[in-house]
Input
Amino acid sequence: MVSGFSGAGKGTIMKALLKKYGNYCLSVSCTTRQPRPGEKDGREYFFKTQDEFDRMVENGELLEHAGYVGHSYGTPRAYVEQKIAEGKDVILEIEVQGAKIIREKMPEAILLFVSTPSAEVLKKRLAGRGTESEDTIRERLGQTLRESEEISHYDCLIINDDLDRAVEEVHQAIQTFKHTPKRERAFIEELQQELRAVNGR
Ligand code: 5GP
Output
């Protein structure tokens, strides 16, 4: 899971990561917010009405869902489960409340948090994006302090001041954290069985 402040560059890092490395796939979320210029239904998001979104929640079609600055966001369950079963590294780009839910449901999930080097840079990037109104920018900046309080629950903090380096750090972090012993229980058990066998026990 990748979380981070709005404007920190998560989306750009994810696009570059997927282009560079083959085993990743990005989950496409559902949202009730309006598409930004250039966004396409089914590519950046599945754009839903609130009724459609609520129905998906009722039918258990979302792995997690959360509210963010007045809109609903959620992860479609079927795609994620299918890709995990295919052995893919599935990336969810989600905000901190959704990440908390996934962390509880899937304790083996790896959590990465993307930040700009400073609050000043964040403010400039968010404004420079030119896709949101001043009110929306203010609302999004207003979330950042609360979001920053969650960083300590993440496995790795990625400071995005250079895109290529940030992509490499995300890739390395995922590949490293995949092999922490708590995520390798099946391998360890199998190894122990083999060790018992070679030791004649
Ligand atoms: P944006 O409107 O900028 O595309 O996304 C706003 C926030 O919602 C971002 O922090 C983004 O990571 C998060 N988000 C996107 N999809 C999901 C989702 O499926 N679930 C949750 N909980 N957050 C999401």
